[in-house]
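Re: beginner question about structure tokens

> Can someone show what the tokenized structure looks like for a real chain? I only ever see the sequence side.

Sure, here's an example I had lying around. Input first:
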Amino acid sequence: MSTDTAVCFSLLPLPRIHFGPGRLSLLPGICSEYGRNVLLVTGRGALQRTGRLQQLLDAFAGEGLNVFQVNVLHEPSPELVDRTVSECRNRVVDVVVAVGGGSVLDAGKAISAMILQRHPVERFIEGRQGVIPHDGRKVPFIAVPTTSGTGSEVTSNAVISRVGPGGFKRSLRHNAFVPDAAIVDPELMTSVPAPLTAASGMDACTQLLEAYLSPFGNSYTDALALSGLERFGRSFMAACSGGASDVAVRGDIAYAALMSGIALANAGLGIVHGYASSVGGLYDIPHGTLCATLLAEATRVNIRKLRQIDGAHPSLAKFAKAGEVLTGEPCDNVENGCARLLDRLDSWQEMLGFPRLGEFGVQDAELDAIVSITRSKSNAVVLDAGEMRNILEARL
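And the corresponding structure tokens:
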């Protein structure tokens, strides 16, 4: 009889996923399965600049669909969601479609979740005063990412934020909020500028690494995370430079983001995303930029703490494996693997010039207060307040 511990885990549902170049053409037909009236949520204007928006609207018209369009210019706030939902109550909406970056997908997801509700969205947001449970009723939702970062196309939460003193960045969450369908078409990402490619890509990388090291991970999420890290490592710098228009390169990063979304939804995230909630609610820092500037230092502090606990801690071997996979170079031992991981993260930080926290107004005198409101139950190791402060301090 085997003495190994039985493997046990639970998984969130997945949407119907269509991945690959040209898959956007499937969108009108998928929408028509839900009805004739489409709420289309889009972003700042990338679709317009490339001519894809008009092509998509023509395709919708060819399918006999009626389209009402909403633009999302920033990370979604409660006010934006409530305002859009109020407008939708005077219309018939059979399906909500979000085509854009992570903020657009989160906005679309939240709108679809709130159209059938009567309370404002803030009543359902995790961690807010007077929160009430959502009953899961929603309008069908289809997610079409145009950047490779958040993995929101496969997760059950929508991040809602109000930035400033007393601000927050929290999730509207229910298993029913997983999109009904997701279309991931790398052709939509070939025009994304290098700074956004870098920031959103580092969000995906952070999610892969944090989910892989999460104490709530399992063999399924580990396999997805490692698969995503392999694709990410071989194509990230190309996507940020000369290979930006290469659909195969973009496909690798889109795949990495997709895997990161599935992994995080089932394993959780670490200290960097803990700061994404606390720092992100207080300062107007793009989410991907915050991940990019903190990941290397957070990884360094995590590895140092694990070594202090146990030089043979199994999580150190996982960090080393991540370094091996991310660089594509076999490592002789755990020490070398961890060093290779840190070297790679540091080199990206230097080459891509990720901005420091001080550039967004974060000051040393505020760090202790930030640490006090930061939570990260899924981090690779429990960090004390001093260690958490060190991460921020190093990136001021």
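Each token stands for a local structural state, so reading them left to right follows the chain. Residues 194-394 form a domain with the Dehydroquinate synthase-like, alpha domain fold (CATH 1.20.1090.10).
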